[in-house]
Amino acid sequence: MGSPNAYGRGTVRGWMWELQVLRNLGLTKNLPVFITETGWKRNKGLSSEIIGEYLQIAFLNAWSSNQIMAVTPFLLNYQEPLFEDFSFKNPTNGYYPQYEKIQGMPKISGQPVQENKAELLQGEIYSSIVSGQDYQILLKFKNTGQSIWNSKVKLVTIQGGKELGIENVTVDKAVEPGQEYSFNLKLKAPDSGIFKVALNLFNEEKQFDSPNLEFTTEVKAPVILVIKSGLKWKKDFSGNYFLTVSGPIGEKVMTVNLNKELEARFLLPDYAFDFTLERPYYHLVRLRQTLKPGVNILDFGSLQPDILTAILKPKQFLLYFDLFRPS
Question: Superkingdom of this entry's organism (predicted)?
Fold first, then answer.
């Protein structure tokens, strides 16, 4: 490479020349610089002591720019032709003076800059909630960055956390790039109001490079259900029915009666849910309905008898329908 004080192409400052060429071609971005496999060869009029001085001058001057991310001298250990004259290690397992010269210089520990990014795959802060209700919301993210997530990574509520009682959630295992992780976010609905919520992941105090996740949620009146149905071949429709509800909050089975108002505070207003109504010896009926605050009528129509059960268990079936009279 010649003198450690030289300028221009093919010198210790060749990186500056290369960047100028790129700028002349229209590049405006401030690129990081990596100087790799660089150094001087012994036995060309240069002793190990002189090479050590050259390297020190280059590190303190030509390679001192903050734009330089790393310098990797050539070569730590190689005892075969053609590169033995570049080696920092000698054949007796000791080191040449240039190694000791660099070893004695102050250095900054290398911390490669990595992108911290995440993509939300599943989950949301519900757009409508019911006052006083506690919610556990699973937010599934994919690690789309370059770093491994660990206990230093946490999901932080940038806006709306105090009003909704949301606390930060920390990663509890290693999550490599490409892998997925679910955060269990706890939320308590206040008495009323409309709230904006902004979330993002942080690595210690540094926010991820991904854009904030933004939601708006409104506190609304609870959902009230009224179940409408009937039973074919029976005049009396009273008694218990089993209602299965599935949707954004998971699945829940309840015992219900017909034509009575049932306050279901766990249901989300303005969301669609699947409902299944069951009664022994009858075919179940399903329907899907978007709920509103206040009263919602779920009309399942008339439940039809389960003829297969009648064939398999005729006595129980006839007794249930009051069609069997013991002698």
Answer: Bacteria
Instruction: Give 114-164 pLDDT, tens digit per residue.
Output: 899 999 999 999 999 999 999 999 999 999 999 999 999 999 999 999 999
User: Three-state DSSP class for 159?
Assistant: strand
Can you say whether the dihedral through the CA atoms of 9, 13, 15, 20 is positive or negative?
negative
pTM for the structure as a whole: 0.70
Residue intervals in the chain for CATH 2.60.40.1120: 223-320
C-alpha 88/C-alpha 95 separation (Å) is 6
Contacts of 241 (CB under 8 A, 6+ apart): 227, 229, 255, 256, 257, 258, 277, 278, 279
| Residue with token string 């439940």 | 303
Q: Which residues pair with 136 in a beta bridge?
A: 186
260 burial via Cβ count (<10 Å: 0-12, 13-18, 19+): exposed
Whole-angstrom Cα distance, residue 160 to residue 216?
Answer: 9
The answer regarding whether domain 118-220 maps to CATH 2.60.40.10 reads yes
**Which pLDDT band holds residue 281 (cuts at 50, 70, 90)?**
confident
Cα dihedral across residues 85, 88, 91, 97: positive or negative: positive
Q: How far apart are CA 200 and CA 118, in angstroms?
A: 9
CATH topology for the 223-320 domain: Immunoglobulin-like (2.60.40)
Indicate the DSSP class of residue 92.
T
Contact 289, 298 (CB under 8 A): yes
The segment(s) of the chain belonging to CATH 2.60.40.10 are: 118-220
As a whole number of angstroms, the distance between CA 137 and CA 188 comes to 11
Q: How many CA atoms, within 13 angstroms, populate the side-chain half-sphere of residue 150?
A: 3
